[in-house]
Amino acid sequence: MPGNSGQTARPSERSETRVPAAPAGCNGGFPSGAWNFWTKQGLVSGGLYNSHVGCRPYSIPPCEHHVNGSRPPCTGEGDTPKCSKICEPGYTPSYKEDKHFGCSSYSVSGSKEIMAEIYKNGPVEGAFSVYSDFLLYKSGVYQHVTGEMMGGHAIRILGWGVENGTPYWLVGNSWNTDWGDNGFFKILRGEDHCGIESEIVAGIPCTRQY
């Protein structure tokens, strides 16, 4: 969808952080709850922080995740922004008219089924258990070896492959491009490593709205 600055707008991540089905907001929740909200309540468009793209651009400034960089360090859990049901000044259409809905959302189980879903409909969302050795990831296929469990983390699974005989998922993280392999990582595929294949959610947008 074209935004008000000529850039491409997309369903707002900010809207998704506040969904009641994932009640902890910025402090956690369940991916399936956010997808259910998309199908039932809809999401308005948005863009990156301070981009003025879409109806509700992301409102939380970027910070550094587990690396020393130019941004201030992330401070951990924070307050979830209040829901403002109005688009930013100068943006049209209205908040209500800008809503985009999913026609269906569903779970996907099993590595072959996940691959088939990605091949047919594009990336899926997953969640996995993050251990302290994952924070140091730079390249290769991640396999947990040592360190304490830090918590759960939601990610985007974009594709799959094999590297040096090891099957992997190609995953997009949300920790900026200076973490990992330009913001991406690979993780062992086919063994539900760290629970990566246990909580896969996907969905289909309602094409009639476009």
TrEMBL record:
It holds the Pfam family Peptidase_C1. One of its GO terms (molecular function) is cysteine-type peptidase activity. Residues 1-23 are annotated as: Disordered. Gene3D superfamilies: Cysteine proteinases (3.90.70.10). Residues 1-10 have a biased composition (Polar residues). InterPro entries: Papain-like_cys_pep_sf, Pept_asp_AS, Pept_his_AS, Peptidase_C1A, Peptidase_C1A_C. Keywords: Disulfide bond. GO terms for biological process: proteolysis. Residues 2-204 form the Peptidase C1A papain C-terminal domain. Belongs to the peptidase C1 family. This is Cathepsin B isoform X4. It comes from Physeter macrocephalus. The lineage of its organism: Eukaryota, Metazoa, Chordata, Craniata, Vertebrata.
